[in-house]
């Protein structure tokens, strides 16, 4: 591998009275490392264990370079390409101006010291480093010298200059130096009392946009937030399966940091494949920020991720690394989003992997459990009559905890794409979205922005910014995101906008949405910034935004008065509970009527029934067939009824009663005002055996669709979907029905006894424009 032994041309200069810079009678010499004057002024800097690794990467024979002559400092800089200029203030006053650029395929550095009276002789003492600013690299395999003393040539009592030149193949690295007048022997550093430091072979970069971005010339810009890290190291890998990076760049806080953003830019000619970061130390020494200098961290803004090594014995590598490539080009021509009105939606919630993973799906192994597999079952969605697909969270996640504990927010998990990797997964998802759009179906995405996986997510970047570290109770203290903190809010909006612009997603369902309302200390906010920002974002406000207050940590909803700004819809948990209660014989007619009419107790303040997403079952808890088959103490919170016998049975009367109950649930779901949400597997009698855990949910059994129950239930759902759409003037309304357009009937045509628990019969007649239907 190329190494970093310096091949340099050192040209001292003298200045004419007019200020022009001339070569001092063509004075030119080549300083090879073995002839350099070694120094030990870095005595307080340790040569760590990495020195051998750095040495191994720095063996290049020193070669003489062509003599270069310039008549002025401006003419030198004018000949440089892609010049970066740095101006430092020294600790004793005066300035050091450094220009870095390329000339004739080499990197040239011009250093000019002004406004300082240092005497006739000033030495430039310099060294180079990459991964550790406190550990300089050996400059010659045959010597232990890690620094070189080079004289600057004086033009007057206050101006000195020198030029250094390096072969391009030796970069990237940092050039670090200080000044030392021979008359006083005092070492002079910058105003922060640190060494002067400039990047060679790479550039300072820009603080925006965050993440990896590419310019028109192919160069790569890295931008990474960490407010409290004292240092940040960019780790570059030429093999994602390697446990060690091919190159590490210890970003300089003076050159490569703007505010709280660390940044750097590399030319596109490098052959690195993936990247990550290491954060070192804490600028504030806060207990909340515990930085492990050896821990490699995935860039939160990586758009394409790749698996790192599987045998991560040290635990210092993340599961994923960012990939150094642009996003794949995708042909979105002819893609027309359906742009369905909210009240017209009929939603089907699906888990991408479980939907086609089972062998009964009869699709190829490389497509089973992927986005491509979902498209192959497009006819099933059409048979049900649904027009919106709600995908369970597809973010990369903690495999032990499940998809509702994400570790990244800007790319789909690799497991949902073909075996060829992350780029293929991205292209496959886009193809799925385009195909669904072409068939009149919108794509909604469940997202989790309130917490992360317990490890391997944002931990170690800046915990006191990203996480609600003030919480001291249970699991939340480890992984609860500080959603209303500016940098986290920005990440959430950037992620959502990315999914809309790059993947054409039509809407989002926010899991554990009540936590979006909380402050850093856990208090509920009346106007949470992130919720308001989403509601009024010019791009996101045009999508469907749905709050789901179900909490994956406690496996139960955490209801809250959700501020909506007439933009936010909600998963209606009260609908679920009231319908379950009524059909097991414990609810009131008034509760049932409220849910049938669109839940005016929740959505009457400026929204309407179209903002109510109604459901009976979801992917946690009992599926529909179990809701009428199990009602033991262990599932008491599910408000279920077993219809007379616990668990599976062969008794005809029990089975008939259960079938009627299933139809009652589905009928109420579709005739109620609001958006019906079906759960994958309910149409074919999918059972979890009475278990409410997410892990007990089974892959979709396609053979069950051909059973008598599967056929009848699918046909019944299809009929209800068709009825709801055909009579959209009554059942798909954006506004509530007027009181005079509804007639209510109790048993024997008597008025309903709304608050009588013993009354279990309710009928209604709906009218449009006073015309009885």
From TrEMBL:
Gene Ontology terms: biological process: starch biosynthetic process
N-terminal signal peptide: none
Pfam family, one: CBM_48
Listed name of the protein: Glycosyl hydrolase family 13 catalytic domain-containing protein
Molecular function in Gene Ontology: isoamylase activity
InterPro entries cross-referenced by the UniProt entry: AmyAc_plant_ISA2 (IPR044096), GH (IPR017853), GH13_cat_dom (IPR006047), GlgX_Isoamylase_N_E_set (IPR044505), Glyco_hydro_13_N (IPR004193), Ig-like_fold (IPR013783), Ig_E-set (IPR014756)
PANTHER family, per database record: GLYCOGEN DEBRANCHING ENZYME
Family listed: Belongs to the glycosyl hydrolase 13 family.
Residues covered by the Glycosyl hydrolase family 13 catalytic domain: 349-738
Superkingdom of the source species: Eukaryota
């Amino acid at each position: 591998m190329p190494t970093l032994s310096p091949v340099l041309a050192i040209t001292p200069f003298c200045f004419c009275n007019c200020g022009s810079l001339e070569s001092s009678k063509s004075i030119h010499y080549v300083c090879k490392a073995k002839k350099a004057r070694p120094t030990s002024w870095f005595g307080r800097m340790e040569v760590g264990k990495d020195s051998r690794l750095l040495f191994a990467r720095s063996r290049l024979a020193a070669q003489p370079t062509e003599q270069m002559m310039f008549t002025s400092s401006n003419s030198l800089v004018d000949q440089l390409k892609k010049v970066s200029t740095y101006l430092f203030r020294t600790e004793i006053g005066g300035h050091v101006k450094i220009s870095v650029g390329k000339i004739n395929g080499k990197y040239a550095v011009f250093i000019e010291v002004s406004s300082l009276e240092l005497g006739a002789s000033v030495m430039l003492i310099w060294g180079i480093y990459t991964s550790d600013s406190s550990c300089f690299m050996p400059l010659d395999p045959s010597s232990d010298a890690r620094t070189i003393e080079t004289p600057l040539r004086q033009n007057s009592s206050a101006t000195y200059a020198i030029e250094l030149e390096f072969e391009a193949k030796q970069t990237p690295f940092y050039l670090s130096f200080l000044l030392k007048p021979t008359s006083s022997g005092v070492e002079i550093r910058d105003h922060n009392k640190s060494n002067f430091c400039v990047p060679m072979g790479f550039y300072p970069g820009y603080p925006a946009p965050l993440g990896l971005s590419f310019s028109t010339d192919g160069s790569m810009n890295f931008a990474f937030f960490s407010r409290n890290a004292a240092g940040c190291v960019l780790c570059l890998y030429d093999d994602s399966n390697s446990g060690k990076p091919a190159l590490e760049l210890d970003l300089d806080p003076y050159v490569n940091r703007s505010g709280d953003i660390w940044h750097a830019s590399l030319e596109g000619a490098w052959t690195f494949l993936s990247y990550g970061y290491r954060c070192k130390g804490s600028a504030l020494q806060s207990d909340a920020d515990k930085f492990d200098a050896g821990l490699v961290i995935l860039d939160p803004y990586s758009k394409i991720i790749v698996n790192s090594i599987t045998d991560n014995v040290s635990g210092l590598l993340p599961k994923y690394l960012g990939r150094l490539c642009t996003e794949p080009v995708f042909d979105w021509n002819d893609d027309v989003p359906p742009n369905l009105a909210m009240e017209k939606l009929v939603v089907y919630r699906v888990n991408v992997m479980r939907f086609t993973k089972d062998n009964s799906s009869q699709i190829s192994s490389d497509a089973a459990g992927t986005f491509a597999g979902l498209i192959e079952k497009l006819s099933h969605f059409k048979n049900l009559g649904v027009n919106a697909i709600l995908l369970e969270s597809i973010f990369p996640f903690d495999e032990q905890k499940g998809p509702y504990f994400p570790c990244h927010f800007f790319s789909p998990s690799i497991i949902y794409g073909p075996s060829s990797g992350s780029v293929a997964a991205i292209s496959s998802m886009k193809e799925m979205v385009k195909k669904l759009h072409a068939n009149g179906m919108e794509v909604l995405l469940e997202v989790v922005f309130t917490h992360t996986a317990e490890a391997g997510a944002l931990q170690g970047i800046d915990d006191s910014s990203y996480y609600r570290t003030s919480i001291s109770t249970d699991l939340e203290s480890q992984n609860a995101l500080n959603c209303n903190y500016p940098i986290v809010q920005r990440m959430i909006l950037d992620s959502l906008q990315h999914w809309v612009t790059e993947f054409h997603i039509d809407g989002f369902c926010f899991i554990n949405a009540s936590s979006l309302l909380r402050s850093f200390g856990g208090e509920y906010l009346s106007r949470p910034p992130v919720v308001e920002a989403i509601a009024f974002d010019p791009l996101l406000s045009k999508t469907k935004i749905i709050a789901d207050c179900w909490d994956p940590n406690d496996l139960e909803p955490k209801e809250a008065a959700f501020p909506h700004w007439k933009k936010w819809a909600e998963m209606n948990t009260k609908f679920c509970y009231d319908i379950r209660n009524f059909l097991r014989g414990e609810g009131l007619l008034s509760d049932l009527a409220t849910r049938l009419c669109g839940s005016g107790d929740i959505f009457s303040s400026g929204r309407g029934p179209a903002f109510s997403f109604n459901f009976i079952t979801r992917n946690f808890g009992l599926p529909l067939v179990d809701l009428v088959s199990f009602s033991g103490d262990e599932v008491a919170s599910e408000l279920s009824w077993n219809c007379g016998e616990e668990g599976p049975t062969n008794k005809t009367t029990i089975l008939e009663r259960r079938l009627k109950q299933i139809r009652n649930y589905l009928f109420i779901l579709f005739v109620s005002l609001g958006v019906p949400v079906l759960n994958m597997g309910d149409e074919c009698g999918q059972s979890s055996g009475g278990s409410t855990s997410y892990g007990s949910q089974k892959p979709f059994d396609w053979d069950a669709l051909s059973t008598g129950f599967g056929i009848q239930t699918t046909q019944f759902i299809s009929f209800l979907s068709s009825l709801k759409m055909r009579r959209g003037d009554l059942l798909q309304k954006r506004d509530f029905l007027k009181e005079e357009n509804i007639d209510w009937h109790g048993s024997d045509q008597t008025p309903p006894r709304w608050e009588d628990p013993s009354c279990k019969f309710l009928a209604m007649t709906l009218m449009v424009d006073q015309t009885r239907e």
